[in-house]
Amino acid sequence: MTRVVIVDDQDLVRQGLRLILELAGLEVVAEARDGVEGVAAVAEHDPDVVLMDLRMPGMDGVEATRRIVGEHGTRVLVLTTFDVDEHVVDALRAGAVGFLLKDVTSDGLVDAVRRAASGEPVVAPAVLARLMANFADRPPVATTAPPGFADLSEREREVLAMIGAGRSNAEIATDLVISMATVKTHVRHIFAKLELRDRAQAVVLAQRADIN
Questions:
Q1: What gap in Å lies between CA 76 and CA 55, rounded to an integer?
Q2: 3-134 belongs to which homologous superfamily?
Q3: What average pLDDT does the segment 106-127 reach?
Q4: What torsion do the CA atoms of 43, 51, 5, 10 make, to the nearest 10 degrees?
């Protein structure tokens, strides 16, 4: 059973999230009202996924994400709204594996938590569109290939570009007419050669280096 910690400073939000997850058969092992409590809850309960608000008093969600990922490697799924794009980028750099809007449907929330627990990145389409638009609006800068990029095969570079565009493994397999197992092998090799921890880091690297 997937184990979840919920971190949000609003009691009603936490209660609603707990109800949705537990009705779907997931286990909410703890709730926290801020980042400090969230870090402590992860240390105590060792969950599979943390649902993390960003704007909270005291320690915010970005710093809590950085500590949780750095100290425990737990997958953090951020709950966000459109007015915190800059914090979304910060959370991505801190190691978050995905982003949900707070108006996500019940089914969408449950699916996202399960996907995050299995290691998949989860990004709400609207959030991904805003992030990509922000990158596109920035003035062009000189880019250099990241360390290890020269070691990638042509197919691996193609897969990396598609990861940077927000494509899932299933979508990559369909577009390239290859099996899911082959896609996963390419992704594993990319992560090893570029020394990436997770898919979120791959997205940032691909976009920063303008890999397409």
A1: 15
A2: Response regulator (3.40.50.2300)
A3: 86
A4: 110
